[in-house]
Structure formats: C-alpha cells, structure tokens
Amino acid sequence: MTQEPAGRILVIDDEDQVRGSMVRLLQRLGYDATGAEDGEAGLRHVRTNPTDLVITDMQMPGKSGLEVLFELRALDPGLPVIAMSGGDSSKQLDLLGSAGLLGAVAVMMKPYTVEELTVAVREALGSE
C-alpha cells in the first residue's frame, strides 16, 4: 500500500543550492516537493499543477517574492505561502513584514533550522 504524500510543496528560490537542499529535506519528510528557479517559473508551476503550499524567497532577480505573493493571492487566495529571506543588506526594506501584510502564513529568516522549517510547513498545511 502506497502512502500519499503529506502535501504538494513548491519551493521558489533563485539559489540552486538553497532550493535543492530544501526540496530534498521536504521530500525526506514525506512531502511531494519540487523547485522553481525564479518567480515566473514558480507562477507557471502553480497555474498548471496542484499545489498545497508555496515557499518563496523574497529577493530574486526578475519577479521578486513580493510580486509572486501578490500574483498568488490573485490566482488562489487560499493557497498558503511561506516567505523567506536572508535579509535586505541595505536595511531599507522590511520584505518579510511586507510579505506578512500580503498574506504569507509564515515568514522565515535564512539560514533556518530544520526544525523551524518543519514546524512552519506543518502549521501552514494544518497538520500540527
């Protein structure tokens, strides 16, 4: 008997290493996780694939995480989104605060711990 994955998660991050390690960790935890290298690819994925949760970086070239979050709200207002950021080096923007205002269910600073990610994902998917 095959067990269904606990949820379909999309990780959007322009850093290959960060995206890859997060996808692998989520897969080890039993989630059906996949990655997208930028905001446009992430939005294309959500439009064409069932998705239960999006985890997006806030600082990416091209379409920023805030733009992704804004467009996701229009596509699927109930889709939970976790926003993550390594911080704004100029300290001019509160990207994670803005993400919260746009409806992110959780915000995380990079680097994050496995426990922080696990708790945020479980809460976002309503499994804790």
Largest sheet, strands/sense/barrel: 5 strands, parallel
Radius of gyration: 14 Å
Q: Termini distance? A: 25 Å
CATH class: Alpha Beta
Give the proportion of residues in helices.
40-55%
Order of helices and strands: EHEHEHEHEH
Read across the widest sheet, the strand sequence of neighbours is 2-1-3-4-5
Q: What integer is the average pLDDT?
A: 87
Morphology: globular
How many individual β-strands?
5
- The helix-and-strand class reads alpha/beta
Counting structural domains, the number is 1
* CATH level-four homologous superfamily name: Response regulator
What's the total helix number? 5
> What are the segments in which pLDDT stays under 50 over at least 5 consecutive residues?
89-93
The CATH architecture category equals: 3-Layer(aba) Sandwich
CATH topology label: Rossmann fold
Commentary on this structure:
The protein is of the alpha/beta class and 128 residues long. The protein has a single domain (8-124), classed as Response regulator (Rossmann fold), CATH 3.40.50. Helix content is 41%, strand content 19%. The radius of gyration is 14 Å and the shape is globular.
Fold topology:
Layout: E1 8-12, H1 16-28, E2 32-36, H2 39-48, E3 53-57, H3 65-75, E4 81-85, H4 95-101, E5 106-109, H5 114-124
Parallel strand pairs: 1-2, 1-3, 3-4, 4-5
Helix pairs in contact: 2-3
Write a brief caption for the model.
With 128 residues, the chain is α/β, with parallel strands linked by helices. The chain is built from five helices and five strands, in the order E-H-E-H-E-H-E-H-E-H.
